[in-house]
Fold:
Amino acid sequence: MSELTITGKIKKFLPTESGVAKGSGKEWQKRSFIVSNDGGYEGKEQIFCFELFGQEKVENLTKFNKEGDNVKVSFNIGTNEWKDKYFTSLSAWRIEKADVSSEAVLSTPEPFVPNPADDLPF
Structure:
């Protein structure tokens, strides 16, 4: 699978979740955050909820990022099944600062206007 990335603005950090794994008894931490961009239909805002697992990643999320920062998020998509219900998650594995001025911006292409001198009879 090719690398999946989204560029947008950090809109919100959700509270850190933690617990203890039933099988191993190890503690775990998870934190979700919301990124928005204008890449939707007709430039409408899209929102994405990413999650990070692990104490170090959770700590680094807010240590190096804040709400309003422009970021590029690399992530994996995963789906789990539980009692015939399916839950899809976006697991972030890299968060980089995005330089908005150097990012490619999607725009509406110029309409094609044929040149009458190029009009061929066939």
